[in-house]
Amino acid sequence: MAWWDNLVATWVGIPLQFRLILLFVVGAVVGGQINRAVYRWTWHPKQYDPWTPPHPEAPQRNLFDKVPIFGWLGLARESKVHGTAHWVQPLLIELGCAFFFAWYYHWIISGQLVPMTVNVPLTAAQSHAIYLQHIVLIIFMTIATFVDFDSRTIPDYVTVPGFLLGLVLCWLLPFVGLPIPSGPFFGYAAPGTQIPAIPLNAAILSPWPDSWNGAGGLAFALFLAAGWWFALCPKLVWWRGGTVKFVRYLFASFVKYSLNWQYLGMLVLLLTFVSLAWGMGGPAVWQAVFTGLLGMAFAGMLIWLVRVFASIAMGQEAMGFGDVTLMCMIGVYIGWQPVMVIFFLAPFIACVFALVNYLLTGDAYLAYGPYLCIATLVTMIFWSTLWQNYGPLMGLGWILPAMFLALPLVLGGMLMAWVWFKFRFIYPDEA
């Protein structure tokens, strides 16, 4: 990608300290727009941010209110309308984005993301492609996190553009995702051996199969893309009343709500994009797009199965569908392999936050989306260590993802046993 190489060469010509300052400023500005999205896309939109028309009872606003970070100090005067500390969270979001944009840039260009087996540094174009892709993902995850905390829902306004933009980045910048050694994959290389980094792809740790480049690979990719579209389409899923009623309601609601120019147009554009990536993009682009689609499918299917079996076991909805679309979005950026790490990390992170929240507020409800996002961020930051310690499990091949897709069934059985035990011996009066 000559255009990207030239753009990065111009950027790295700026002294590092000035680049970090610029990224700090950009992070603060982007943080302001994250706040704008959070307050507009929450279930009950709020008039907190300076880009939204003020509340009728709020004092008059001025231009300084739109200055990132510092503007919120002035907006604290609206506390009588919105609450005493309404300005603290958005100020911290903008300040956090400013520091993170600069820190994460330095983290990546200093090689901290690359496994230790790699002894050939990433080129500037490669490291900056990874940085851009990760920052885009983090922006969408930050919006999803705070919307979910606020309204306990993750709207399609966040996950759909995030997914589609992730696919576009797979085409524009094929060296995306997370870096791994070109081989040996683990341990140390022999003295004098040059080991460059390659992007994590769907076939690792095996050579890319030729069959995935053929018509069969295209058909499978189109199937995955169409499956994401169908899952996204509004429809009525009615489990009661038997199979006939289920199919009838599903089909009728799908025809009524989804067969319109908006959804059909999205399907046509999506399938066209995948077809062009296969036919015109070249091997690197096709591998990136195919890897993204497979990551989307695996991540979404894993969380969807957890949602289904946990809901059956508990007799109530255990997880919103927004968590499924969130993981679909995350999967297209990082591939299917890191999703398995996220799957294990997220519950531990959630337990810590849930315990603290329960002790402070007495609220036992858990919005799971934010912890999926935090686990994703931890996985990206500490990817080098995670790859060296847990990457060898990839040697199990297809058995590993199959085991993970079976785990939700085991989880459902464990939850069902716990529910039975709880109402049988602990709370028999509530059974």
Question: What does this protein structure show overall?
Answer:
- With 431 residues, the chain is mostly helical.
- It has one domain.
- 67% of the residues lie in helices and 1% in strands.
- The protein has 16 helices and two strands.
- It has helices at residues 2-12, 16-41, 71-75, 79-82, 88-109, 124-151, 156-172, 215-232, 242-258, 261-280, 283-314, 321-334, 337-361, 369-381, 383-390, 399-426; strands at 179-181, 197-199.
- The protein has a two-stranded antiparallel ribbon.
- The protein is globular, with a radius of gyration of 23 Å.
- The N and C termini lie far apart (63 Å).
- The relative contact order is 0.09.
**Can you give the mean pLDDT?**
89
Number of strands: 2
The number of domains is 1
Which percent band covers the strand fraction? under 5%
Task: Return the string of H and E elements.
Answer: HHHHHHHEEHHHHHHHHH
What Rg do the Cα atoms give?
23 Å
- Main-sheet strand order equals 1-2
Instruction: Bin the helical content.
Output: 55-70%
Number of DSSP helices?
16
The biggest beta sheet is recorded as: 2 strands, antiparallel
Structural classification? mainly alpha
Query: Shape from CA axes?
Result: globular
Ranges with pLDDT <50 over ≥5 residues? none
InterPro entries: Prepilin_IV_endopep_pep, Prepilin_peptidase/N-MTase
GO molecular function, one term: aspartic-type endopeptidase activity
Keywords: Membrane, Transmembrane, Transmembrane helix
Protein name: Prepilin type IV endopeptidase peptidase domain-containing protein
